[in-house]
Every structure is written in C-alpha cells, then in structure tokens.
Amino acid sequence: MAAPKVAVVGAGVIGLSTALCIAETCPSCSVMVLSDQFSPNTTSDVAAGILIPHTYPGTPIHVQKQWFKETFTYLFAISNSAEASEAGIHLVSGWQVFKNTPKEELPFWSDVVLGFRPMSEAELQKFPQHRFGQAFTTLKCDCPPYLLWLEKRLKATGVQMYTRKVADLWELHSEYNIVVNCTGIGAHQLVGDEKLFPVRGQVLKVHAPWVKNFIRDGDGLTYIYPGIHRVTLGGTREKESWSLSPDPGTTKGIFDRCCSLEPSLRAAQDIKVKVGLRPSRQCVRLQREVLSQGGVKLPVVHNYGHGAGGFSVHMGTAKEAARLVGECIAALQGSSSRAKL
Ligand code: FAD
Predict the structure, then answer these.
(1) Residue 200 phi, psi (nearest 5)
(2) Does residue 44 have a known ligand-binding role?
(3) Which of 94, 114, 188, 310 qualifies as a FRET site for 105, CA 20 to 30 Å off?
(4) How far is 289 from 81, CA to CA, in rounded Å?
(5) Distance in angstroms (rounded) separating the CA atoms of residues 92 and 87
(6) Ligand 1 pocket at CB < 6 A
(7) Taking the mean position of all CA atoms in its chain, how far away is CA 138?
(8) Structure confidence by residue, pLDDT tens digits, 99-135
(9) What is the pLDDT of residues 143-163, one digit of tens each?
C-alpha cells in the first residue's frame, strides 16, 4: 500500500495536536488538516488554557488521569525550553478556594500538578468568604500563540493545511484513506451527534500585569488566570446555549465576581469580551468507526467532545487518536495484502 493519506478535520487544539501526533508516529503517512476556521477564530482561541482538569463522568478516572499526565509532561518540557514564550506556555501558581470544604479534598490530579497542598490559615485570610483552599502550581497555555506554534510545528513536519468546510465525512473517501474527526462542537451537525451539546462560556481578557497568581473558586464559575500578556476573567457555563454574542450584563457580573476575589482588578484596563461554545459530552468520543457505501469503506477516528477541559488533556487524547489511526493503517495494509493473494 502507498503512503496512507490522512485527513484531520478541525484546527482547534484537538485537531492540531492530533495531526502532530499522527505525523510524528507515522512518518510515512501524508497528513493534511482541513478546517473551515483556523486560529484566531476557533473555540480553542477563546479558552483560558489553564491545566486544571474537568471531570468527564463517562470516562474512567484512571484514563482521564493518564491523558492529563501526558499533557502536563508535554507542556512542562516546553515551559522548560527556549521555546516557552513563543509557544505561550508558562508555569503559574495560585489557589483554588471553597466556601465549604469539598467532599473530595484530594482531586485525582493532585499528584500531577506541582506542590499540591492545603492552604494555610494565613493564606486563607486573603479570601474572607472562603473556608478551605488548595495551593498548587500548574501550567497555562496562552491559546492563540500555542495554536500558532502547533501550526508551525506541523508545517515543519510537512503537514499541509487547507481551508475547507466538510459537509459530510464521506465526501473525503475518494481523496483520503483515513479521516480523523476533530471538529469540536461542529460534530453536532457533521456527524449528527445528539449526545454533544454546547456549554456557552463568556470570558474577559484584561490588562492587569500585576496579577501573578491564579485564583479559582471551587464552584468553577469564577476564575482569574494570568497569562503572559493578559489575564482571563471568567466565567459562565450555559448549557445548550448556541449564542456567540457577548452579553453586557454577564460582562459586568463576571467583572464584579472577579473583583470580589481580587479587588486590585478594579484597575484593570483594555477589557475584551470573548464567547466560546464548549463541545460537551458525558465522555470524549475517542473511537474508530468504519463508514461504508456500496462496498467502499472509509475508516474514521473520532476525537471530539472535550467540553471544559480540552487544553488539560489534549496531548493525551491526541496520542490515543494517533494509536487508533495506526490500527486503521494496519487493517488497511492487511486487507490490501489479502487482496493481492
Ligand atoms: P475547536 O477549538 O472548536 O476546534 C474545532 C475545529 O473544527 C475548528 O477549527 C472548526 O473550524 C473546525 N470545524 C468544525 N466543523 C467543521 C466542518 N464541518 N468542516 C471543517 N472544519 C470544521 N479548557 C481547558 O483545558 N482549560 C481552560 O482553561 C479552558 N477554558 C475555557 C474557557 C472558555 C470560555 C471556553 C469556551 C472553553 C474553555 N476550555 C478550557 C475548553 C476548551 O476550549 C475546549 O475543550 C477545546 O478548545 C476544544 O477544542 P477542539 O479543537 O475540539 O474545538
């Protein structure tokens, strides 16, 4: 069989990282990224990009932990290299604070992040409305620079990128041997996945260079995540809302909530508002499927549905998707050698 042609559909953090893993693990493949939007116009560009996992109820915890660990290890190495600032990756320390002590005082990811410990009484004095807290150091991606860095890595490995809206995965069967579906919330329409739903998120990106520590309310709604250039203030979680228009009342609410956690933010400047739709599902869809029409087959690998935690697990799920592509190639090679007999 000639070099397998692989189309990765989607150019958010999932599509780009998956294409990179496939190109690196299968150098004989010809990999292309097809997408109707690229950075800076994807959901991934809106994200805060902090590495604090979201829990997927339908995925075993040990699998989620493995995905997070692989992603953390990958980004930690970048943060510790000369490329850190271009890639937009940096370590950030801070606090997750709770109004009431959570049932689970040790989250499953506590031994993956660095220096996880309960907050001291003295630290908690900064948060008079909160009774319990966790201090740790994690990683943060500045999302648009990280996506551009991934695109640059892809071009350097010979991966080509084309702007194209795919109406039906089957339309790719005559041009490609394998299709990888990384379309995020777009999969709702593309493959008619009724289990996939949007969770709308509105965030503010502000200039406040004196804010150095992250602060996250344990309810997950209010957060302050300092990046290299701007601080992300959040947020909202609106299930089944498809609206991409910023809401001015929500902007004020987010700003007030964040100022009550970090009063110095009242002096923040140049407030920009962004909205994105988290591609949410009970579990990430990471599986093989074979489409078939009139005896012709097209192997597909799905990798979408990362909800509120795509940055936290992207390299782990990209590696698994690349492994599934390897299985598709082995199956194609098996069937082409059987056909020659
Ligand atoms: P997208 O980034 O949406 O990429 C999908 C791609 O597919 C796009 O390029 C799109 O153009 C393309 N596409 C779709 N349909 C088609 C089609 N038919 N044909 C061709 N191309 C198509 N996660 C974290 O881990 N940490 C955070 O701090 C964090 N903060 C967030 C804050 C907000 C406000 C939001 C909204 C999300 C946040 N997330 C965070 C979640 C994270 O952003 C997502 O999990 C992640 O971006 C999903 O990536 P994706 O590549 O699957 O989707």
Answers:
(1) -70, 135
(2) yes
(3) 310
(4) 38
(5) 15
(6) 9-15, 34-37, 42-44, 46-50, 165-166, 182-186, 190, 201, 203, 235, 276, 278-279, 304, 306-312
(7) 15
(8) 999 988 899 999 999 999 999 999 999 999 999 999 9
(9) 999 999 999 999 999 999 999
